[in-house]
Amino acid sequence: MSKEFFEIINGNFIASEKNKVNNVNLKIENQGEIISLLGPSGVGKTTILRTIAGLQKLSSGEIFLKDKLISSNKTHIEPEKRNIALSFQDNSLFPNYKVIDNINFGKKRANGSGSIINVNEIIKLLHIEPILEKFPHQISAGEAQRVSLARSLMSKPDLLLLDEPFSNIDQSLKDEIQVSVKKLLKRINLTTIIVTHDSYEAFSMADKCGIILNQELKQYDVPYNVHHEPNSIEVANFLNKGVFIDVKVVDSECAVHRLNHDSLGEIRGKLSNNFSSGAKVKLLLQPEDLIHDDQSKLKLEVVDRKFRGTNFIYTLKTKNGEHLPVFVHSHHIHQHEKSEKFGIKTPIYIDHLVCF
To answer: Is the predicted pLDDT of residue 261 greater than 90, yes or no?
Structure first.
């Protein structure tokens, strides 16, 4: 019996030969925590949700919810007896029910064990007021997602499962709804697992984030650590937060570690992994790690510039042909053109020296 609020122990989730995730170990210690599962499309994230909900059987391992075994190779509690709500990415509304009736259906399914939520509050929070009297075929995919989420919340589950809950919502509305939904989930202390392929969504919504790649749960940690200290080159490449450059460890015995790069020179910081002095390693360099300085003597050639609203991302070329990304605030006094020289502040200091 598990002492955690929710736990998967050595879980194997299989929908097909290609769509499976093996040997998953995952804990949600306290009620009310929000967990995100992040990975590319088709990797098996939805299969995990469907299995937790009881719509598919667990191949092997165990799943516990509130000290109760709900899935194993010998045990399978039926979906309607789990008090788990699953909101699908695709439209799963009752086509012959109006929107308001679909939402109220969730209320009818409530078993009384969850938090009390006011239906009008949910409708307002998810901006559903204008479509309450419409049928599912009369509303957009984004609106259907919000209605499905409202119905799931009204069922007062012990565990809420959300499959790409904001994927079809317009960007202008998405950020507002994400913030509002997270506040609500925290206020009513509703434990939630969110599946997404959007790292920004996963990091902003969740207390912990699991990275699923190549049929495995590769890393499970707080979003800050996943972003700043990925535990493998594989995870770092999936998050696409930077590039790897070849460096040499100059000193790994002092309080501030020192690396050396052919073009950048000395790089200081704290090594996340243990390496001996003299070791040749690959350093993860993220766009926010290097600081622009027009007065610096260290200058690299600009080969590309992308506008990202609040920032530009400059791509710089080293003498060895490496391409390095650098963030610069869009209000910087002047913009740099291709082939211009671009100054990098020295000495270079990076809090987390993530090396492999």
So the answer is: yes
Give the pLDDT confidence score for residue 228 in this predicted structure. Answer: 86
Encoding tokens for residue 16? 């097909």
What is the pLDDT, as a whole number, of residue 6? 97
How far apart, in whole angstroms, are the C-alpha atoms of residue 353 and residue 294? 25
Crossing angle for the helix pair 99-109 and 141-154, to the nearest 10 degrees: 30
Per-residue model confidence (pLDDT) at position 171:
83
Q: Is 165 exposed, middle or buried (0-12, 13-18, 19+ CB in 10 A)?
A: buried
Q: Give the per-residue pLDDT at 116.
A: 65
| 33 neighbors 57 (Cβ within 8 angstroms) | no
Q: Which fold has domain 242-353?
A: OB fold (Dihydrolipoamide Acetyltransferase, E2P) (2.40.50)
Each residue's pLDDT tens digit, 44-62: 999 999 999 999 999 999 9
Q: Where are the domains of the chain?
A: 6-233, 242-353
E strands in the chain? 6-14, 20-28, 34-38, 60-65, 68-72, 84-87, 159-163, 191-196, 208-213, 216-221, 243-251, 257-261, 265-271, 280-285, 299-307, 311-317, 323-329, 341-343, 348-353
CATH 3.40.50.300 fits 6-233, yes or no: yes
